[in-house]
Amino acid sequence: MSDINRPRTVGVVNRAIEELVAELGDDVVTTDDISERYHTDWSGSSPTAPVALVRPRTTEHVSTALAICDRHGQTVVTQGGLTGLAGGAVPRPGDVALSLERMTGVDEIDPAAATMTVWAGTTLEAAQLAALDAGFELTYDLGARGTATVGGNVATNAGGNRVIRYGMTREHVLGLEGVLADGTVVSSLNKLLKNNAGYDLKQLFIGTEGTLGVVTRIVFRLRPAPASRTTALLACPDYDAVLSNLASFRRVPHLSAFEVMWPTYYDVIAERRGGVTPPIDIGAGRAAVVELSGDDPDGDLGLMESMIGQAIEQGTVTDAFLARSAADTEAIWAMREAGPTDGIVGLLHFDVGLPTGDIDRFVTTVEQRLAARWPGVVVYPFGHIADGNVHCNPTVGSDDPETVEQVDHVVYDTVAEFGGSVSAEHGIGTVKKPYLDRSRSATEIALMRRLKNALDPNGILNPGKVV
């Protein structure tokens, strides 16, 4: 593979940009006054202006743009909703930004196949609403649904709140259309649940963060929309009680979410950002959000009440708040999805995967190790513990690069000790690239590089990301 970090002459860049403008026009290609929106993403990575912004309207535009860039060795970073937290959509100096924000809308909903075909620049929320209008549900869900695009979700194999029941984004994709580095369009808009005809080529695009190709359209699997969602907030005295409740609710076939908040998050983050006062006191325990998605509103409500009653009798729940209206449900989820707050100096964000039974011990170990170096550290943990994902967000009072790197080492080294993943659902990008070896062997990383070399021999697609 050509060196993806190689310097490129101004002349080479200019020729590539000139050809892009000549072929696609200044309606698609912008070279001056590129909005700061396209300079970075939600990761907080240092903003960098791309040398040009390409905003295609069609797959053919994407194909033309990549073919031109590949001929000239011009590097490209693909952008969707720019909600990523790993720096995967941030340009490097000299990159062309390829934004799919104009490629939006539902191409087709097939009721018989229970599928929808959607353009990659469509927000998740827009796709979800279109599915609901047709009597179906697109069942993966994220807090950033109103901004995150389905193409970005596919490229990062996003997770979210309902992985316990429906799986990661990968499990919702039946087929897709993508464009390779040289402009070749791979159209595999499969609607079949059963299709073992050779290699499953869509997997080359899912979770590979735009390093092997650019996703343009996706065929999603749909499911019937549930008649009701029943939500409760539980106060559990400790993590063992959380695991006991998780085991009980897992026996319910329509459990769709089981989320947990630690006291620091619940008492400070959720109250400040959720817009509501926490309805129950969890003390030093853990707060669990439980959601059932079913077809019997009254029956599901009764089932939730019965299970909470049993848990209270057993001592695994000390208090509970059962949503009895849409407003109650929104209030519970507003707390859980409030996320990190502004104004906390040195608040760092970690999205890691661990065996569910070890998560609380991992959190305690990280707290102890950070406190040994930065007295007064506060960690704000929360996450989708049913699928082994915790967001462990510490503040050490400083966000200077040297301190951030030291904290990264503490957290990711601890992840490795626990046999976990440095990225559960947000991808690798640039932020986690130095720590990929904490979760992947040298052989695995070498194979990733071989795939990259085979599909992008000139190294133009999202260089410097992942591997």
Describe the model:
It is a single chain. The chain is α+β, with helices and mostly antiparallel strands and 467 residues long. Helix content is 32%, strand content 20%. It has 12 helices and 18 strands. The protein has helices at 10-24, 59-72, 124-133, 150-156, 163-166, 239-250, 263-273, 297-314, 326-336, 359-373, 401-417, 442-455; strands spanning 29-30, 52-54, 76-79, 96-99, 106-110, 115-119, 136-137, 173-179, 185-188, 214-221, 223-224, 228-236, 255-261, 286-294, 319-322, 351-353, 378-384, 389-395. A 7-stranded antiparallel sheet has the order 15-12-14-13-17-18-16, sandwiched between helices. Helix 10 runs antiparallel to helix 11 (401-417). The radius of gyration is 23 Å and the shape is globular. The chain starts with 9 loop residues before the first helix and ends in a 12-residue tail after the last helix. Mean pLDDT is 92; it is low at 1-7.
